[in-house]
Amino acid sequence: MSEKLRRWSNANDWKMYGILASIFLIWRIGVVGNWSFECWVLLFICLMGVRKDQIDVDWKRFFVVGIPLLGIFFYFYGSGKGIWFDIANWMFENNRHPWTWDSMMNSIPLNDASWARAINHPLLDRILVWIYNYGFVLSLWICIVRSYWTKSVKKMMSYALSGHLMQFPLILPFYNLILLREVWWVKGQPDLLGRNFASENEMLVTVMNCFPSMHTSISFAMLLLALREKDRIFKYMMVTYCSAIIFSTMYLQIHWVLDVIAGMLFAYGVVKLADLIIHLVSKLIPSRFKEFYNKKDQAYATEKTIAA
Does the predicted TM-score (pTM) go above 0.85? Predict the structure, then answer.
């Protein structure tokens, strides 16, 4: 009996180390992302029903794969903002846009989404500014972190590939070919986000990448994938949050309506492409790895043996 207790204790020690390492890594993700208190509350709500979507995999074996994978995502998104602005600056300096759509988009009735501000209030402005500012990354991180706690590497990869990992390279041709600036800039209105630009060059780089809307494509891709989960709390929260992100792009006069529609279509295509890639790659994974990873969680069986 003592030997069984020792094995059970050692197994749970390693599980606890993995949980602590995971919590620390997720905390670092939030710190680097400058998450506000509200961001953590939203994440907590989305994690409430996570057990409904957990798969039956041993925690220790999952941590061997899951922790390094989460760390890789953390590194990529930590350095991704700098890479993105470097690419945007390069695009602006080389000015390779054969098409300029400002006048065309502005001439289409209702395309400026001014109707989205039919009801507006300073409090609503502040709420939607918060949603917009965090939504580009937070919507993805909530899904990745939650998929981590479901112990599903496949879900982690699905969310990551459907997000920035594939959307960045696939959307760049649009931004390099089409020059379309934000609604407020084209119409000569104040920037409702209240951004302070260090230079005229920084402002022009920031406002020129509009078609399709990547705020929309990221959040809509997360919405589509969240609908596949079982937990209703998570589904309802993500549908509400992601829809609010999409609405905020129009309410704050950032994106044109056609930007948003194109962003949703783009997101749908990327999600389907990610599904195909995961399906094909899964066939190439060695069977030994699958056997190692897919071993069932023996915690309950062990507890029953000790109790007996």
Answer: yes
